[in-house]
Specification:
two-stranded antiparallel ribbon, single chain, globular, three-stranded mixed sheet, 5 strands
Length: 262
């Protein structure tokens, strides 16, 4: 990390600093720094306020409508280290469903999905979630483009994928062929999620995103500012899924959370 990058890292608000070890130093070179820092300060300022239970009503309704056995609870989570392999698989499926519900529902984007915010009720086979105060209120355009990115991947929808890919060259003009190269790297990041269960490892997350950042640097482009905070959510999700240490059917979780919408 260069001196300038170290200085920029020192400006990161405290609630985000615990995530820095999981972020490639190259990330700082592909963001609109002023915009990202401004959003981070807004998010950090909101953490001092007690969250409203009203924020989560739409997602609780979505849980019930899809049959997702996820319960919101204010008690601290215990993680997943002491549950059986079968329960770990079920917990992982529900975690993925939770993530895709967060992507699609008109709720704040929860930024901290680390294991300390979860536990699993082995009798009820229910994922118990204690949301943090670290949350981002997304712009509708950003949310719709992220939805398109996943739709493009899971349904081979080229138009949706192209709209989602624009998040990775926001307000910039990259070198020719960038979209094709970035799509290929994102498919490496997603892995075999469309066709077979995936074993989640934070090392894969870091390595593939480092390649994505390096491509953006080489192509002289910048990411949409809100992608930084989706990355925070994904970091915590990967940490939780890695702790479960079981292969998981990502496509099935996506279809359950979205009702199979194409």
């Amino acid at each position: 990390m260069s001196l300038a990058e170290r200085a920029a890292a020192l400006l990161v608000p405290k609630p985000f600093q615990e995530f820095l070890p999981y972020v490639s130093p190259s990330a700082l070179r592909v963001v609109h720094k002023d915009k990202v820092l401004g959003l981070a300060l807004e998010i950090a300022a909101r953490t001092v306020k007690s969250p409203s239970t009203e924020d989560w009503k739409p997602i609780e309704l979505a849980f019930r409508a899809s049959g997702s056995k996820i319960r919101i609870d204010s008690q601290s989570g215990t993680g997943f280290k002491s549950i059986s392999e079968g329960d770990r698989t079920r917990a992982g499926e529900l975690l993925l469903e939770l993530y895709f519900h967060l992507i699609h529902q008109p709720t704040p984007l929860e930024l901290d999905l680390r294991p300390t915010h979860f536990s699993f009720h082995s009798v009820e086979k229910t994922l118990v979630w204690n949301p943090s105060r670290l949350r981002h209120i997304r712009t509708p355009e950003f949310q719709s483009r992220v939805i398109d990115l996943y739709r493009g991947f899971f349904f081979d929808d080229a138009k949706a994928a192209a709209r989602g890919l624009e998040l990775y060259r926001w307000e910039t003009t990259p070198k020719p062929g960038y979209d094709e190269r970035m799509e290929k790297l994102l498919r490496i990041h997603f892995g075999d999620a469309r066709s077979k269960p995936v074993l989640f490892e934070i090392s894969h997350f870091k390595e593939t995103f480092h390649l994505i950042f390096e491509e953006a640097i080489e192509s002289r482009t910048r990411f949409h500012p809100e992608l930084t905070f989706l990355g925070t959510t994904l970091t915590g999700l990967y940490m939780s899924l890695e702790q479960l240490a079981v292969p998981l059917d990502v496509r099935a979780a996506y279809l359950r959370a979205t009702g199979g919408q194409s």
